[in-house]
Amino acid sequence: MKQKTFVLFLITVVITACNLPSPVTPAVATATPMVIPTSTFDTGGAVTLNNVSFTLPLGVAGDAQTEMVAAVTDPNSTSPWDLAPAHLKFTLTGYQQQDKFLPPQVFVYPADEYAKTNPAAAEQIQRLKNILAGSALSKDTMPVLPFANAAQQIASQMQPIDFKTGRGVRLVTQYAQYAAPINNHELFYHFQGLTNDGRYYIVAAFPVSSSILPEDEKPESVVPAGGVPFPQSTGPDPAYYEAVTQALDAMYPDSFNPSLFQLDALIQSITVVPE
After folding, report:
1. d(CA 181, CA 179)
2. Residue 44: what pLDDT?
3. What sign does the CA torsion over 256, 103, 47, 197 have?
4. Contact at 8 Å (CB) between 116 and 89?
5. In this structure, are residues 154 and 173 in contact, taking their beta carbons and an 8 Å threshold?
6. Quick one: pLDDT band at residue 39, thresholds 50, 70, 90?
7. pLDDT on residue 1
C-alpha cells in the first residue's frame, strides 16, 4: 500500500473524495468530565501570550514558540480553507515525539469571528457546543480539526475535560486521505474547547504513540503484541478500525507516550482571560 503525502489546510475534514470505508457503529463515551489536578505531575515552565497561559507538565515539552497569527478574511485573496480571524498559536518545543504527522500545537481563536469567517470552523464549533450541552460522545458527533484536508479514521479515548476557564473534549485519533493503517507516526491527541463565556475556541493537537501500534503506515511494519493486524489482502476495513479503537480504548491513559494524563493536565491548566 503506497502512502499518500499531504499537507494540512484550513478546510473541513469531511472529504467525500477520501473513499474511506463506511463508518461502523460508533462507540459512545461517558459524559462525565475527567478531573486530573495539575499537581499530579511535576510542572515545567509556564507559557503565556497576551491573555492566554498554560503550564507544561515536566518532561512533555521544554517550552513553546508563541505567535500572533494575522487575520485572513478576504475570500477573493486566498483559498476558503485559509480564512480565519487573528488568533494565537503555540508550538511546543522539545516535545517527546519528534518528526510526526502533526506538530504539537495549541490554537486560540475568537469563536464567533472564526465561525463567521469560516463555515468549516462554524460546523465544528456547533458540534462542540452540542457535546457540551449533553450530546453523547461518538466518532460521528465529535468535532474534528477545522484545518485538515483528511478524514478522521478513529475516535478512541474520548473524554470530556474541564480547563481553568472553560470546558471541552479530547480523544486519540488519526486522519488520512486513504484507508491507512493506524500507526504511531500519525496518531495524535486532539482537544477542542470553549471558554465559559463562549468567546474563545481552543484547538490542540499533540502527537502520541502506543505500544500496540506499528511505527508507521507501511503494510510490512511489525504490529506489536496486543495490536490489531490489518487485512493484508484488502487493506484496513471498518472491522479493522473498530478493533483498533477498542484496543486503544482498553489501554490505560498513562501507557501512551506522552501520558494522556499529562496532556490532560496541560489542557486543564489553560487560562484565557477576556480582553
Report:
1. 7
2. 65
3. negative
4. no
5. yes
6. very low
7. 41
What is the rounded distance in angstroms from the CA atom of residue 215 to the CA atom of residue 237?
A: 19
What does residue 122 show for φ and ψ, rounded to 5 degrees?
A: -60, -40
Q: How far apart are CA 273 and CA 253, in angstroms?
A: 30
Q: CA 271, CA 54: separation in Å to the nearest integer?
A: 6
Q: What is the pLDDT of residues 99-122, one digit of tens each?
A: 999 999 999 999 999 999 999 999
DSSP for 75-102 reads: TTSS-GGG-B-SEEEEEEES-SS-S-SS
Residue type, 247: A
Q: How far apart are CA 122 and CA 132, in angstroms?
A: 15
For residues 43 and 58, give the distance between their C-alpha atoms in angstroms, rounded to a whole number: 5
pLDDT surpassing 90 at residue 76? no
Q: What is the DSSP letter of 17?
A: G
- 137: which strand partners? 29
Cell (9 digits) for 123? 460546523
**Tens digits of residue pLDDT in 141-174:** 999 999 888 899 999 999 999 999 999 999 999 9
Of 200, 190, 165, nearest to 86 by C-alpha is: 200
Q: What is the C-alpha separation between 147 and 15, in angstroms, rounded?
A: 12
Is residue 40 a contact partner of residue 59, using CB atoms and an 8 Å limit?
Answer: no
Report the SS3 class of residue 64. Answer: strand
Q: Give 169's strand partners.
A: 160, 192
Q: Cell numbers at residue 4, please?
A: 499518500
Q: For residue 33, is pLDDT > 80?
A: no
Identify the bridge partners of residue 91 per DSSP, sorted by sequence position: 65, 105
Average confidence score pLDDT of the chain: 86
Position 38 pLDDT exceeds 50: no
C-alpha cell at 101: 504527522
Q: What's this model's pTM, rounded to 2 decimal places?
A: 0.84
Gap between the Cα atoms of 44 and 62, Å rounded:
7
